[in-house]
Amino acid sequence: MVLNPVISKLAGKLVVLASASPRRMEILRNTNHLKTPDVVIGADTIVAVDGTILEKPVDKNDAYRMLSRLSGKEHSVYTGVVIVLCHENENKSVDYRLIDFYEETKVKFADLSESMLWEYIDSGEPMDKAGGYGIQALGGMLVERVHGDFLNVVGFPLNHFCKQLDVVFNTSGLLLSQEILAHSETNVKDEHTWPLGNSCSTNPAAENTAAPSLSSREQLTEVIGTEREDNGPQKDDLQRIIELMDGFKASKALFTASRLGVFDLLQSRPELDAAQVAQEIKASVKGTQCLLDACVSLGLLRTCQKRVYMNAALAQGFLLSDAPHSLGGYIQHCDQTVWPLFTHLECAVRDGTHQHEKAFGKKANDLFQDTLYNNQDIKLRFMSAMHSIAKVTGRAVATAFDLSRFKTACDLGGCTGALAHELTKAHPEMRVTVFDLPTVVEMSGRFSPQHSENRVSFLAGDFFEDELPKADLYILARILHDWPDEKVHVLLRRIADSCTSGSAVLIAETMLDGWKPHSALQSLNMLVQTEGMERRERQFADLLCQHGFGDVQVVHTRNFLDALIAFKM
Ligand SMILES: O=c1[nH]cc([C@@H]2O[C@H](COP(=O)(O)OP(=O)(O)OP(=O)(O)O)[C@@H](O)[C@H]2O)c(=O)[nH]1
């Protein structure tokens, strides 16, 4: 996400920092001269280690208990932030809108000797700090490395805060009158590495330790949630539930407007009224009016007093068929393939299997050959969906790690070559072979863009059967989630056999760590569609480790896909 100027939007407003923390005051002090009353900001910082929350120590012994627990280990620092936008309505009562988000930063402590611990505690610094240390001062001595936003550890994630303000103030003026997604996805990277000497683990307990965010996130919610008496449903809770219940209606309105060509039409001919749009898309005026108004309420279109309609920024960015980051192909796939499959979610949950036969009346023994690639139109639609996802995520994946040492890469299942193209753009020395099924390769030429300096080539083959092209780097973007562990092992074994020491595997998937709704819903998506699943970082690390890959590093690009690299030892 590109960050636009946002802090100036707070000018002339009274911003109340609902926090006693002098550090937060300091971080936000420079942001503006604030006058009129309407924004309240609250924040709370906690440290999570081994599934336990550490807040501020109550005395020196408590500080000792905390710091000795952190010694030699990596822990997470979470700051939860709530922004309340207040607005006096015409009845003189106050409407308010609540935006909440949190940021996680990982901090690794050195091994601390007893005398070091007590010297630090005696300095008095730990007492008013979450986890018992102040990274910005003497506590910095204790820290070996930090992955993520430093200011988040100090008590306020200023960058994420600005990104949220950007969504509120810059994305669309209309959004001010609507709810904003609480944990909006942004394009910053959260990086971290698995502990050195990353060992294989088949112990389910290891998975829990690898995902401390389960308990800490729940407890963080407790910490930042407001305690209240049971006075019946609260307005925000009710609103949230209704939003969730309405989710499918919103999706279908978006799919339908996209399918009927509403966004392309209003781009070439802005300011049409409902009757004019209805005529162009060959639909009823009544239905078109409802659809256009729904799109306005969702922030996809804008309107004005004359009741004519225009594309909002979101539509221009993602919904035009020729936008550089068009999600049009993916939207059509969601509408025509994913939607029918999801109507059988209950069966999928009961049986633990995909639902192709129920949704489309056809047996699907081989997921790709029997469902997606056995009909030319469906194949093109699927390729177009993969193409649009790869275009939107490609740059974030291609630049997640320093790949300068790799001169040759092979994108296994690389479909239209969109990610390969981003890789060659980001790495001028790199040549990329896209390896995919013959039926895909024969159609890949239809997809623009044409590849830079011919450093992308296509090779037809089946990665479960045929010899893999030699490469320094193997890329698996949205591939492993299609398959159960047994098949993943087959593929990783084949890749490992083609690798030499120092070669690497780069995996781009939505990882389940962190309780992001998109990832968890994507996991349901894999359930209804495939025999595969979404996985956690630790699961990938374990799978790779069994094939001789180690030194696993993960970057959360927060752009649909997370990226993981592992090196052949
Ligand atoms: O490295 C650092 N880690 C944490 C801090 C400071 O610790 C406190 C965290 O406590 P909390 O979120 O409860 O905030 P309070 O100070 O109690 O203010 P509230 O009134 O908002 O509860 C916070 O001050 C961090 O800045 C640090 O300084 N360095």
From TrEMBL:
Q: What cofactor does its activity depend on? A: a divalent metal cation
Residues in domain O-methyltransferase C-terminal? 342-549
Q: Which residues form the O-methyltransferase dimerisation domain?
A: 243-319
- GO MF terms held by the record: nucleoside triphosphate diphosphatase activity; O-methyltransferase activity; protein dimerization activity
InterPro entries per the UniProt record, alphabetical: COMT-like, COMT_C, COMT_dimerisation, ITPase-like_fam, Maf-like, SAM-dependent_MTases_sf, WH-like_DNA-bd_sf, WH_DNA-bd_sf
Q: Which domain of life is it from?
A: Eukaryota
Keyword Hydrolase recorded? yes
Query: Which keywords does UniProt give here?
Result: Hydrolase, Methyltransferase, S-adenosyl-L-methionine, Transferase
User: Which Pfam families did the record assign?
Assistant: Dimerisation, Maf, Methyltransf_2
Q: Which residues form the signal peptide?
A: none
Sorted alphabetically, the Gene Ontology BP terms of this entry are:
methylation
UniProt xrefs under NCBIfam families: maf
**Subunit note:** Homodimer.
Q: What protein name applies here? A: Acetylserotonin O-methyltransferase-like
Which source organism does the UniProt entry give?
Answer: Takifugu rubripes
